[in-house]
Amino acid sequence: MIGPLLIILAAVAPVEANGPPVRLAPILCPALSDADVRAALGVEIRGRLLGVGVVPATDFLVVSVSCTAENVDLLAVRQGAGSPVRREVPMVGLAADARPRAVAVAIAELLRVDLLRNSSPPVEASPRPMPERTVAVGGGFLVAGYFSGTNPHWFSGEHLRVALESAVEEGSGSWGWGVAFEIDNAALVTYRADLVGAVSVLARRPGARFTPELGLGARIGPSWDYTVNAPQPTTILGGPFASAAIEIRSYWRYFVRLGAEGGIDFGARGGGWASVIIGGGFRR
Asked: Residue 113 pLDDT more than 90?
């Protein structure tokens, strides 16, 4: 039963293609032929088996075969570095002509064990370091109102924004900082136009999908009448504001941004403003 089983294992066993060269020590067992075992082992491990008298490489394996009354003891020892491996092969019930092949198959399996035991573990790739900061570029459409006395003005226009932000791991629950530079180009229904720039300091908490953001800053810029027959008086709008926004990551580095802002005009008109901004952008 053991003989046919070893022959089947030999037929399906994969060829050992990796590992150091193998030097087979002379076999002195009366029940085994050194030449027959070497020939069978050459089939099992192919190019790894060193020929008789060949000077081995720096790192190589020595396989020794010793016999007892009923078993064959195998020992594989690496000459460079590594721990030895052993195996015992029962010979009871094996025909004399099947023994060299059975020993060769056992040596091949022993070499597989040695390869698994002494191979270096795979080196895990170090995670890509996070950048120290990111840049977000975006824009959108704004709808706002300017409130001064009992005569509010409603206007709409374009909103452009560039933000420099500290890099925070998404979903970590940590808050990061940022600085945003904005410009709004808005037209009032009463034929007035505003071109207002802003700088603000941000607090952001990046999540896996949603990122809340709070900001404090200041705006300043000209406001003028653009009707043809008007004297086009120009006034300066400017003052502090507070903002809140939510970013929704849509795909890769792209996001949708919904924001709201309220501020006080310290200029001659002495009013205040509130706006809602809908837009998007990308971050890198």
From this structure: no
